Amino acid sequence: MSNFVNKQSTRRKTKRTRNAKESNKENVNNEEETTLINKILNVGSKISHYKIIFLPEENDLDPIKSIFSKEEWIKLKVDWCETEKELSIPLDSGISEDTKVLLKIFSRDWPREWIQSVYKAFLLCFQLPVNPLHDRNLSEYAYRDRIVNRLIEDIFLDANNAINMRTGEIENTDRKVQKNLKRSPEQKRAIGWSHDALLMIKVNSSDRPVGFGEVVGNACYHNDKKMTDNREKILISMQLGFSKLQQILEKRGADKEGFKNIETFGILVYKRDFYFYVMHYVNGLYLVNKFDEFAIPDNVTQFSELSDIIKILFAFKHRVIQLHLRIQNLLKGKCRNQQEPHHTGETVTIASLKGKRRRCS
Q: For the region Disordered, what residue ranges are annotated (predicted)?
């Protein structure tokens, strides 16, 4: 009998010791997290105020990157990668039943028609006496209208009951509200930022921005300062959109653990290069990294590259659909990270355009 009592006592002591160690470890992690956040806030740059870390930054003298050691910077990239692997679903995994229900297919052949329209748009550019992709005098509006919007806007048309890409000079109301909250009573009401593209999804029957796009001039325009300013604008908008989604979910009583299921996107077009960014919330920080990119072809010898570009855009669309479904599940109290995928031959979107899943680096 005494042996049994001793064993029970030993087990209880072991359990208390283990719980104490876990509690101490959690306290240490919280202290480290707070220290790191304060260090970033003290940098004093625009994006550090929003606790944003731009991981593709290559300049070691950048105000934010310079406060980290090489090992710390690598750790931040690893943290981003771990979240990325949990959330990203490869294009070749197929379309889930939920995704098929989401799609409002007004034409079963729409993906095929969109692909054809992309090829036709580029073929026309290559045949014109002055190729718009070589025209230094082409306006930014014309560049967006002829090329950029054809790629990033029309692809979402068959899902526009829940997801749509708006293009033009689209006002960011989140930024407008933020500026108005900071103004003094005698100041005029603020005007929000405008974006060249705004990706919207339905949340609680209202449209919420989750993607922000900027185009810098035309295909020949070179201005690194303007590109950096536009990228900074995208990053801040991504954080504001992310925070608003967090607030909506918190009001609806969603589990805060589910916040790791949220992500927001940025699209930057500089000259002929398209950069796709995604933001993840990790340990109180908003980590941003590039998850895809491509350069558009500017002559007929590069025409075959369009097939790879189309794969990337279909993969991006698939990713946005999955984000919408995760948010819907969080609002319903179903904190599921991924949908069960199964193959379908219904559209050419997945079946005929499989591409390799990008490695996290």
A: 1-30
